[in-house]
Each structure stands twice: as structure tokens, then as C-alpha cells.
Amino acid sequence: MKTLRNVLLALLLTIVAMGLLLPNDFVVQRQIQIAATPAQIHPLVDDLNQWPQWSPWLQQDPSVIITVGQPSAGVGANQRWQDNSGGGHLVITASSPETGVQYNAFFDGAEHANPASITFTEQDNGSTKVHWHMRGAFSMPIIGPYMAIAADSMIGPTFEQGLSRLKLVAEPQPSPEPALESTGQL
Description:
Elements (H helix, E strand, L loop, with lengths): L1 H20 L3 E10 L3 H9 L9 H5 L4 E4 L9 E6 L2 E11 L3 E8 L6 E9 L5 E10 L5 H28 L16
Antiparallel strand pairs: 1-7, 2-3, 3-4, 4-5, 5-6, 6-7
Helix pairs in contact: 1-4
């Protein structure tokens, strides 16, 4: 019994020591190729009223309440959200039809912003590489570094879902082929 207690104590001390030594900052980034120009994609990410068309957050939690402020587009555009796990707000800090948007996301209880961006790189074939990036830090002692390690696997799939939805909304849809009329004659 004493050996088991010593092993558990050593394990607990190791977890605490690692939590104190590991960095608490994180970076999450994903990208996708979209068959559209930056000018076609930009209004969808610049105007917060357009985000429900592609944003993954509402699909993940339909109970989210989002309030878009004024202005709703461009530098200074802002929104607040509230859900079962808390809430937060974001503010667009830079906006360019050629290169995309940068914003600061503030989550409830966090002291500092999580800088994020959705940027465009136009490709030679007329498509655009869209890159979604967020960085930040967890300020909780001991637990924060472990959350930072898990941030990519927690947030990354959501970014992938949002970029896939953005692709569906931004890419021009082919016009339907007209139906052939049958005359009944051969």
C-alpha cells in the first residue's frame, strides 16, 4: 500500500511540475483552397452579419446567442456571444479585400485577447488559399499548459469545419443545365 501511495504521489508531483514548466501559449491554424478570388471571399469574413452562413460555432451549439454590434463590417466591427459554457466577444482590428481580416477574440474570464486572422493568398490559377489562424495563452496555473497542448486538437477541427463551409458559400455554383424537352417523336 505504501508503494502505491508513493507512486501516486510521484505521479502527482510530476504532473504539477510539468504544469509549472510547460509553456501555456498555443497556436491553431488551418487552411483551405477556395475556387474564388479574395474579392469574392472578403465580404463573407469582413461582415459579421455574414458569418452565420459559414461559421462553425452555430452548428456546434444552436443555443449560442450572437449579437452583432455597429459597425458590422470592417475595422471596429464587433460581436458578442453567449452560450452554455460562457461567452465572449470579438473585434475586427484590420480588414483588406486583398489580404483578409484580423480580429481579437476575448473569451469570458480571459485577461488578454486571442489575436486571430482569416487571410487570403491569391493563387496563379485564380483560386485563393484561405488561412485561419489564432494564438493565445491559458493563464490557469498548472492546468493551462495542458490545455495549450490540447488547443490544436480542440479548436483545429472547428476551424476545418468553418473553412469547408466558407468554401461552399464562396465558390461560384454552376448554373443548372436546362432540362431537355421530349417531343415524343423518334
